[in-house]
Amino acid sequence: MRHEKVDIIFQAAVQVFAESGFDQAKMDDIAQAAGVAKGTIYYHFKSKEELFSALMDEGIGNLIDYAKRNISLHSNPIEQLHALVHAHIQFFIENKKLAKLLLSEAFGTKERQHQFRVRILEYIRLIENILRDGIQSGDLSIVHPHEMASAIFGAASILVLHKIYSLEGQEKEMEESANVMEETVRHLLFNSLMNK
Amino acid sequence: MRHEKVDIIFQAAVQVFAESGFDQAKMDDIAQAAGVAKGTIYYHFKSKEELFSALMDEGIGNLIDYAKRNISLHSNPIEQLHALVHAHIQFFIENKKLAKLLLSEAFGTKERQHQFRVRILEYIRLIENILRDGIQSGDLSIVHPHEMASAIFGAASILVLHKIYSLEGQEKEMEESANVMEETVRHLLFNSLMNK
Amino acid sequence: MRHEKVDIIFQAAVQVFAESGFDQAKMDDIAQAAGVAKGTIYYHFKSKEELFSALMDEGIGNLIDYAKRNISLHSNPIEQLHALVHAHIQFFIENKKLAKLLLSEAFGTKERQHQFRVRILEYIRLIENILRDGIQSGDLSIVHPHEMASAIFGAASILVLHKIYSLEGQEKEMEESANVMEETVRHLLFNSLMNK
Amino acid sequence: MRHEKVDIIFQAAVQVFAESGFDQAKMDDIAQAAGVAKGTIYYHFKSKEELFSALMDEGIGNLIDYAKRNISLHSNPIEQLHALVHAHIQFFIENKKLAKLLLSEAFGTKERQHQFRVRILEYIRLIENILRDGIQSGDLSIVHPHEMASAIFGAASILVLHKIYSLEGQEKEMEESANVMEETVRHLLFNSLMNK
DNA sequence: CATGAATGAGAATTCATTCAT
DNA sequence: AATGAATGAATTCTCATTCAT
Q1: B147 C-beta neighbours (distance < 10 Å), count
Q2: CATH of the domain at A29
Q3: How far are the Cα atoms of A127, B35, B127, C10, D103 from residue C101, in angstroms, in the given order?
Q4: What CA–CA distance (Å, rounded) separates C161 from A29?
Q5: Backbone dihedral angles phi then psi of residue C28, each to the nearest 5 degrees
Q6: Which of B184, B186, B189, B191 to mutate to test binding with chain A, by most A CBs within 10 Å of its CB?
Q7: Locate the HTH tetR-type domain: which residues (chains A, B, C, D) (predicted)?
């Protein structure tokens, strides 16, 4: 089991990083939020970058695990796709802070950002694999599965994030919105927008 | 006509901001890139924030204008949607740096980020209006046009951005990819992923 | 006659310098207050220091002239002392901004501050001369006339300045206070504080 | 007991502030004079303003304490007044740098300057109270005790300050001057300048 | 393991002054 | 005479990181 303090620091760090982004986040604030001395953070993490990376790595790992778990409940690619959409939206709603960081800290030239995109790619590959399975099995008809996976990732992610900001502070409405958002993505995937 | 120096500073600022993001960008670098003294930037812009905001405002304004121009060439909502997808992807490809900033600097609690999301919302409304026109005319069948607009925005944006990073440094391949990406988004919009 | 613009700049400069003190005063603000371009100030004055010095020199010159004029109306040293006290207090009340600068910018190691103290000394000598005349004529009994002159200068100056700040924004009360202040200084000079 | 470094910084700050005044004083110089890194100052004080305010507050606090201690040795208002004059002049001579700052940084619109005047007022009230006690006991005859207190403060302060500048660099003469100055102020208070 | 005082390399911003027009 | 855009040296303040205790 991970050292207790590490967990406390982790909790605090998500809050602070999500509040302000990587650059604006201050180690002082993280220390204060965690209720430990600044030196203690440095005892457990080599640097701010390392703390952040560890954090994001765990975060996106959780997303991937959660998605995998939901997918594995089904064997049919179409049902798996449904499950993935559900999982993605739920996870983003339950991890709003991580969701913000996921998009805002993914683009850039820093090594940490590159590492980060590698993990996102891993998640997109997960989607892509479902698509490829569906094509294989004849259930799905997709020309560019990789691009399609990334488009699906973008549609679902931005949709939730957009909603998070427009419903800022209205926790209740968010839950109701979850259905609307799932419906929207499903409609996009499984129906043509065209009437008939 | 805008003052010449302001334009030079603008050009330099896009480069530098896109290279490093708002926080990492240094006014020194912008000044150097622009070939002016640091003070000159401050003579024209009150602060780094203001420079950035002016920049992003113009950038997203260009995106909106470009999209509107493309849309206005058609009167049929479905053709307009096609045009919008085309415009969006082309604009992102031709303004890669802006595209990165568009997504990475939109989420946060800073006033500038809020202002920025307001402008993005304006663009999403543009999409939403096409969808509503299509519903009205009976051409489209969409339950939640606002959510759908934001999903479309997300799909197209992340798709291009993802491609920008995976093709980093391969300018030629990017152009070819444009078609693949447009096809992907069109497929998502106008076909079901399901085989028949 | 002095160039018209110089006068305009002078007027503006007193306001701004008094508002913020030498260091905090900005040439930009003076230019704006004067309604001229910043370059124009530099056309007429070599530097901020020179503008300030010219200003203070004129200001203290006015004080000295005003005091001399009032003194010269009397030939008796005691009446002259009365006249001086009256003039001093009146001048400080009518030139509040100059009064503030007079005390706050007089102490320091800068050449301008030294020049400034030289002029104040000139004023103190004026008081001292009245005292010496009074000693000579047997009207006054003072052991250290120079020190006494400087003490009188301090008493009257600080008294008015203290009142200026305590009555900030109450123009009317200031006028009434003038009498109280004159009485106070006269009492200090011509009576013992001791009862009988 | 205050942290050792804080004291060192305090010592250095008085020197530097008095040398150049608030605005011209550089944090770099204070740091160098204190033999600490610039960051260390900011670790202990939020800003230059706060450091200065803390400094002046302590300084004028010392003056008040010193005066009170001297006054409390006597019960007769007249003797107390003598003691106060003695204390004031001694304190100004022994704290020349503070004395300069006391007068030059008291006038202005900055919050710190306002705070500062509040403390000076506290000192003037101390004088005023002695005067009121004397009136009460019938020892003194004063019409406007508050104004008189402020005039006394001004007379003694400016007298010493004027002397400090005229004897710059002649430490020995200063001590001798102390008597002359005390005599002058006492004469002002307890005798009429008029001969008989 | 934990602490928090101390550090110092930056970075944003300011503003007197210059000078081409 | 007057202008105001441009400059760049100077200065405050920040904050990740270190290290002695």
Answers
A1: 24
A2: 1.10.10.60
A3: 74, 42, 63, 15, 11
A4: 46
A5: -60, -45
A6: B184
A7: 3-63
Distance from CA of A168 to the nearest CA of B (A): 11
Tell me, yes or no, whether B151 and B114 share the same domain: yes
Other beta carbons less than 10 A from residue D31's beta carbon: 20
Ordered mean pLDDT values, 10 residues apiece, chain C (196 residues): 82 91 95 96 96 94 98 96 97 94 90 92 98 95 96 98 92 91 96 79
- Total domains, chain A: 2
Q: Do A69 and A11 share a structural domain?
A: no
With CA atoms as reference, report the closest residue to B96 among B8, B174, B13, B183.
Answer: B174
Instruction: List, for residues C89-103, the tens digit of each pLDDT value.
Output: 999 999 999 999 999
* A 124-143 → B contacts, CB under 8 A: 124, 131, 134, 138-143
DSSP C101-166: HHHHTSSSSSHHHHHHHHHHHHHHHHHHHHHHHHHHHTSB--S-HHHHHHHHHHHHHHHHHHHHHH
Q: Give the Cα separation of D44 and D13 in Å (integer).
A: 13
Same domain, A2 and A40: yes
* Same domain for D77 and D162: yes
CA distances (Å), origin B22, targets A24, B49, B99, D25, D82: 10, 8, 14, 33, 65
Q: What are B28's two structure tokens? A: 């020194």
| Minimum distance, in Å, between the CA of residue B110 and any CA atom of chain A | 8
